[in-house]
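Limitations

Structures in this collection are predictions, not experimental determinations, and the ligand pose is part of the prediction. Treat each record accordingly. The example that follows, with zinc ion as the small molecule, is included so readers can see exactly what is and is not provided: the inputs are given verbatim, and the output is the predicted complex.
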Amino acid sequence: MGRPMCYRCFWPQALCWCGSIVPMPTRTRFVFLMHPEEFKHTKAATGRLTHLCLADSVIHMGIEFDAHEAVQALIRDPANYPVVLYPARDAVDLSRTELPAPDLGGRRLTVFLLDATWRLARRMWKASPSLQQLPKVMFSGAAPSRYVIKTQPEPGCLSTLEATHELLLALDRRGLDRYARPEQLLDLFRRMQDLQLRFAEESHRLGRRRHTPRPKRADGVAAPVPGPKRRRIFPRAASAPAGEG
Ligand SMILES: [Zn+2]
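Predicted complex:
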């Protein structure tokens, strides 16, 4: 079973508002690199909606991008100035310093954003050395996440939508772009939080219902209930020595 979905924004059709989004043109090109898992977890995904808000954006799905033709073509294209949003050690922290206005020399700023949970984004990063070689920008969390539902695992981890918003503000301040509709992304963010609250309440109610007395087996012992599915935070070591753990 499942509720009918909008195949544009991948939200339940009954809750979809993507028809009211007005795509905003930007000088900068935004490239969302979406982990396949993020595509499945639509409740937490902001990348697709952010993409719908930006006329000059694309989504590429994948885990490693060194052999991804469209992504590599964007990196190689001499008409582009590619940068990646990632909290690497040598990233320019836009929460503390202004974006250095690079001499674009007529090139087009092309920003790659990893759209995934922090754990999966790190894997994509490690699997794509060609991204690691690009100039990096990040936010250290001076502008804290507006997320109240999904607690961000580390300071500076913004949702894709928030990161895009902050980046556009920074680009606008430096005269590198014109951020025409900040209210659209922020409004989208508020609406999404409302929806997430609704989902949370809904699953809370369902959870309560699930805790009504369990069916008894013939011998009077309560039947075992499968434990909750947990998302593992850290991948198990590939080859743990036998006898350990
Ligand atoms: Zn929709």
